[in-house]
Design a protein that fits this description.
This protein has about 400 residues and is α/β, with parallel strands linked by helices. The chain is built from 13 helices and 16 strands.
Length: about 400
């Protein structure tokens, strides 16, 4: 599976700072100091609908992570999956009477278009669950053969008790885990499981549903969590720098994935930091496909909204905060974009070095994009009020906004 084209990242004078970011597993800010190549895995979409603002906010956060790392002169090895076979996708295809593969391909293509328009840097490896199946099957067999998995009526489950670190990502109690498991794709009430929280690794073939050869597992398809584990281990290995996604993935997805990987390898931790973006709401509720309260990136683009304004609307909120999408949020972003473009359109202006360093400092401090926007706002206000004599300063600011925040002025 191919990703989307990369937009050019302008080179800036000087060098950025190491990223300090909130780690869900420890509950603290941690300073990440990767080697020459920083490694990040971000969980991708289940392609049964278009990219909404919740998706865009999440991928914006991890695009900022990449940009901060690139500014430190590191390379970035970014991996993202596509869950191109799963119950929600099959249910939507059945509801709309369309082929599930055609639906997945259509929505994945639209996602690529949205990411390109928003200038999100693409992953080096963009892997679908279906293409990962040949690598998933041996991992499930290894877990089973090691006693970390068991069969139940043809399905294969992971035993959470096989990982002594289980619970170390989300730090939830058993009752909260059970509730979220039921809400987010698990089956805690299924009779015969050793532990209600045990997640499925391999689902035996169901009539009318797609299935693949699972060698000794029989025909079937992979569970949700093992998909990401197989892709991450294959392309990044254990101990990579950041595991990212929305806050709704901390449990069960990232918790279970960490336990799968740790049980497979005997190493800890799977990732040095578990980083989670907040939820975006609309009309008082979390924006989600199940509720249907969605604002789509593609719909805004069709209405003529500049993707740079959409990006600024996302950047106006700290990545970890839960926030509400409103018409006013977009109006404010459009107005900011107009002010910034007017400011950088002049041949000279106030000195740019300080604002570049402020942007760097803000983003290195737990991706504080609102503070970064404020820094550019102050520079643009000075430009508007009194101009300046620093020839080329507007170009430097424009390049910094592009390189560090992905907004083309």
């Amino acid at each position: 599976m191919h990703a989307w084209p990369a937009s050019e990242v302008p080179a800036l004078p000087g060098q950025g700072r190491d990223l300090r970011i909130h780690d869900t597993a420890t509950g603290d800010l941690v300073t990440l100091a990767p080697g020459p190549v920083a490694r990040i895995y971000v969980c991708g979409i289940t392609p049964y609908d278009a990219t909404h603002m919740g998706h865009a906010a999440t991928y914006n956060a991890f695009d900022l992570v990449q940009r901060v790392w690139l500014d430190t002169k590191r390379q970035v090895h970014y991996v993202q999956n596509v869950t191109d076979v799963d119950d929600p996708l099959l249910e939507r295809a059945l509801r709309d009477d369309v082929d599930w593969t055609a639906l997945a391909e259509k929505e994945t293509a639209l996602f690529r278009e949205d990411m390109t328009a928003l200038r999100m840097l693409p992953p080096r490896h963009y892997i679908g669950a279906v293409e990962a199946i040949p690598g998933i099957v041996p991992l499930v067999e290894r877990l089973r053969d090691a006693g970390a998995a068991y069969e139940l009526e043809g399905d294969t489950y992971f035993s959470v008790e096989a990982d002594p670190h289980f619970g170390g990502v989300s730090h939830l109690d058993a009752a909260a885990m059970r509730l979220l498991s039921a809400e987010r794709g698990g089956d805690p009430d299924r009779p015969g499981k050793k532990n209600p929280l045990d997640p499925m690794l391999w689902m035996a073939a169901r009539e009318g549903e797609p299935s693949w050869d699972g060698a000794s597992l029989g025909r079937g398809r992979p569970g949700w969590h093992i998909e990401c584990v197989a892709i991450a281990l294959d392309h990044l290995g254990m101990g990579f720098d950041v595991q990212g996604g929305g806050s709704d993935l901390a449990f069960p997805h990232h918790e279970m994935g960490a336990s799968h990987a740790q049980a497979l390898t005997g190493e800890f931790p799977m990732a040095k930091a578990y980083v989670h973006a907040g939820m975006v709401g609309l009309d008082g509720e979390k924006m989600s496909k199940s509720k249907g309260n969605l604002v789509f990136v593609s719909a805004l683009r069709r209405e003529g909204v500049d993707p740079a304004a959409i990006r600024l609307a996302l950047l106006a909120h700290h990545y970890r905060s839960d926030w509400e999408w409103t018409d006013q949020v977009l109006r404010d972003a459009v107005a900011r974009l107009e002010r910034w473009r007017a400011a950088v359109s002049r041949p000279d202006g106030p000195p740019a070095e300080a604002v570049v360093e402020e942007i760097r400092e803000a983003l290195a401090n737990d991706l504080d994009s609102p503070a970064a926007l404020d820094a550019v706002d102050r520079w643009a206000a000075l430009q508007q009020e009194s101009g300046g004599t620093d020839e080329g300063a507007p170009g430097v600011v424009s390049r910094a906004v592009d390189a560090l925040m992905g907004v083309a002025l």
